[in-house]
Amino acid sequence: MKKGTIHVIENFYMPELDRYRTIRIYLPPHYNESGRHYPVIYMHDAQNLFTVATSSFGTIWDTAVTLDKLYNENPEKAYIVVGIDNGCNYRYSEYCPWYSEVGGEYLPHAKASGMLGGEGFKYIDFIVNTLKPFIDTTYKTLKDRENTAICGSSMGGLISMCAGIKYQDVFSKIAAFSSAMYFAEEEVKNFIISEGKRETMRIYMDVGTDETSNPNNPYFPQVYLSCNSNVYLTLKDVGFNSKDVKYEIAEGDIHNEACWCKRFPDMMNWLFTI
């Protein structure tokens, strides 16, 4: 099997937030030999994308393995993934544009650090105004919106939705896995309504029926199901139709990278229909 490569950039400066972050970039097989330029997918929680050694939560998406497999099945399916490490205690703050004291298993951490949302638009602006121009001048990318996607899970799904809706001129594709929309459901829905549909999009959403196995967590599966369904309906209300949005409910799936890894190929095949 032909394999891609991972480039790691440490201490990449985020001027919008005055912080530094590690960026992990997957390049497809034969990238150096090929004269091709490639679609780009921006992803969050990059520690969890490629190797268990860097994983924040103990499981990984195995993104490189999945993309290698897609390439070996059909070399036209070749993509660059730009993974942005989460900021640990900054994760809630950067992955939600609005302050909120609603949260799940990792809420105490964020609460203790005072980082409960509010920096999400600065984080989105970092991706669009700082990171993307760097990637487009450093790597062989297809720069146009038709070949630019943003993808994440849980809080990463929430911020992916906000990024894609805010910058419809930059992103044409959004993938939001098991999104923690409950963190700021009303704000997300109102934001979608205020922004509206300005461009044709492909938006993939999904949620498992067993998103948490923690019986003491008040945010039980029905919360994930209801908040994602409500956001999906809001997208429909502002004009995104069934060709624009795919919403999948994964029977029996829980809230972890192994489940997102399993659903990732179908998402890619739908988002990037060749």
From TrEMBL:
Descriptive protein name = Carbohydrate esterase
SUPFAM superfamilies, sorted: alpha/beta-Hydrolases (SSF53474)
Q: Which Pfam families match?
A: Esterase
Q: What's the domain of life for this entry?
A: Bacteria
